[in-house]
Design a protein that fits this description.
Tachylectin-2, Chain A, mainly beta, 492 residues, 2 domains, single chain, eight-stranded antiparallel sheet, binds beta-L-arabinofuranose, 6% helix, five-stranded antiparallel sheet, 40% strand, Jelly Rolls
Length: 492
């Protein structure tokens, strides 16, 4: 018993160190984004290409949304032309016309920190746009800076086009770009994402009741530049015509807060609402409790209506560090009621998914806690649903080249099973890395359409601790596998 406690303590310390490292890496990645009043960064919805790309670099780097930590970024994807020199270009192509009038371009220069220096700043560069089939320099350019370790901002006379090029003339070596933001409006791949912009929201959960879709989120209240989660309450939204548009959703404000749980102190993290067999609505939440020496717990609130008012359903945690075989971090509940009446709770983080069955009261455990099998590279944030007799588990993962550019980020993988208890078969990545380090899925079907709801750092002033909920269509293949979600963003 004592040895187990010591082992748990050691594990917790190791995991805490891993979290600290992840957060430190997050800090390293964050730099300020220039304020852009109405325009959005339409580069994110473009397809990149280039005159030449070194085989170990990628054009995807230029519009992946990753803020460069410096011009010699040895961690994130980069576009570079080594050993090619002379005139080189990188291009953004849109599916439909965009109207653009400014750009911020961050050069790749690997000479810093004693790097090899094969890729250096260009001697000069210019922006060209596709004009009736011809590449034409933009006019009225405010300047073409060639600074390292910073964005080089250019305003120019607005053009409507489907493609833009940064044409770089090499200087002392080959050339490259780490990130290119293009400010404007339009493009076929644009949407109203993020769908909530008056406050920062994270960790979406959906629930469809009759003709209404409900969206429940956490609220990020970190001040600008604050590098920590500040989360005290959960918000609710509803829509009778859900879409990736701000106007589709009605805000209902904070419908649950830490105050409801006398035993909880902080961290209103990820949650999910599920209707119980009694017809009432149970809001399962991640919170930092104060009833034991542990950290996060799962609590439950209950109400007669999805929008509340909610009250604590138990008076203490449903799952805590005292629960035998609980996860190293007891957060991110997803609850699933199977057709045979059984109720399953999955949760977990720090690579430790857990599953337990719930009693019909939704507030007590009906089985021992088990470790689900087959959730390959699970990190956290499970979301369970069923379609055509197949059970699906989407979850955040921070491992694998098909998933993330660095382990501080996460993609969403998914697995399927023929039984709600598993075993699960990993099927791949359904949502790629997003602009925030954390990634968190909710999946819903409404009116025959499937949606992936998630969060990003894309709202103005956003960041890893100031996230915003977004949603995009989810498509199934005939064999039940899921196509990778196309992330859209914009100002629609
Ligand atoms: O929002 C706090 C935590 O970040 C959530 O519980 C995780 O899923 C991650 O999104």
């Amino acid at each position: 018993m004592h040895r187990t406690a010591n082992r748990n303590l050691a594990l917790r310390r190791t995991l805490a160190a891993a979290l600290a490292a992840a957060l430190a890496w997050t800090l390293f990645q964050i730099t300020a984004t220039p304020a852009q009043a109405q325009a959005v960064n339409v580069a994110r919805s473009a397809t990149p290409s280039a005159s030449y790309t070194s085989s170990w670099e990628t054009t995807a780097a230029v519009n992946d949304g990753i803020e460069p930590p410096g011009s010699n970024d040895t961690v994130n994807p980069r576009w570079g032309t080594w050993p090619q020199t002379g005139t080189q270009w990188v291009q953004l192509t849109w599916a439909g016309p965009v109207t653009v009038s400014a750009s911020d371009l961050y050069f790749f220069d690997d000479s810093f920190n004693s790097g090899p220096g094969g890729v250096r700043l260009p001697s000069s560069w210019r922006i060209e746009y596709l004009n009736n089939g011809s590449w034409t320099p933009v006019t009225g350019a405010s300047g073409y800076g060639v600074n390292a370790n910073a964005y080089n901002h250019t305003d120019f006379t607005a053009v409507t086009t489907t493609a833009l090029r940064a044409v770089l003339q090499s200087g002392t070596a080959s050339v490259g770009v780490l990130e290119w933001k293009v400010w404007g409006q339009g493009s076929a791949a644009q949407s109203g994402n993020p769908i909530i912009r008056d406050i920062y929201t994270a960790d979406p959960a959906t629930l469809v009741v009759g003709d209404t879709a409900y969206l429940f989120t956490g609220r990020d209240e970190a001040a600008a530049g604050q590098q920590a989660f500040v989360m005290d309450e959960w918000h609710a939204y509803s829509s009778t015509a859900p879409a990736n548009s701000r106007s589709a959703w009605t805000a209902h404000g904070a419908r649950l807060s830490l105050d409801v749980f006398d035993w909880a102190g902080a961290n209103a993290w990820a949650s999910e609402v599920e209707q119980g067999p009694d017809g009432r609505y149970y809001w399962f939440v991640s919170v930092d409790g104060s009833t034991d020496n542990g950290w996060m717990n799962i609590g439950v609130a209950v109400a007669d209506h999805p929008l509340g008012p909610y009250e604590d359903a138990i008076g203490g945690p449903l799952i805590s560090d005292s629960t035998p075989n609980s996860s190293a971090l007891n957060i991110d509940p997803t609850v699933f009621r199977a057709a045979d009446g059984r109720i399953y709770l999955y949760w977990g983080s720090y690579w430790q998914p857990r599953m337990v069955r719930l009693n019909q009261d939704m507030t007590s455990l009906a089985s021992a806690v088990t470790t689900p099998q087959g959730l390959t590279d699970f990190w956290e944030a499970p979301w369970m649903f069923e379609r055509n007799g197949t059970y699906y588990m989407a979850y955040a993962s921070n491992a694998g080249a098909d998933c993330v550019t660095g382990s501080a980020y996460a993609c969403i993988r998914y697995a399927t099973a023929t039984d709600p208890a598993g075993p699960w078969t990993h099927r791949g990545v359904v949502l790629g890395q997003v602009t925030s380090t954390t990634n968190h899925p909710a999946i819903m079907q409404f009116d025959g359409q499937w949606w992936m709801v998630y969060h990003t750092a894309d709202a103005p002033g956003g960041g890893n601790f100031r996230r915003s909920v977004a949603m995009d269509r989810l498509y199934f293949n005939a064999d039940g596998t899921i196509q990778k979600v196309v992330q859209t963003r914009g100002a629609a």
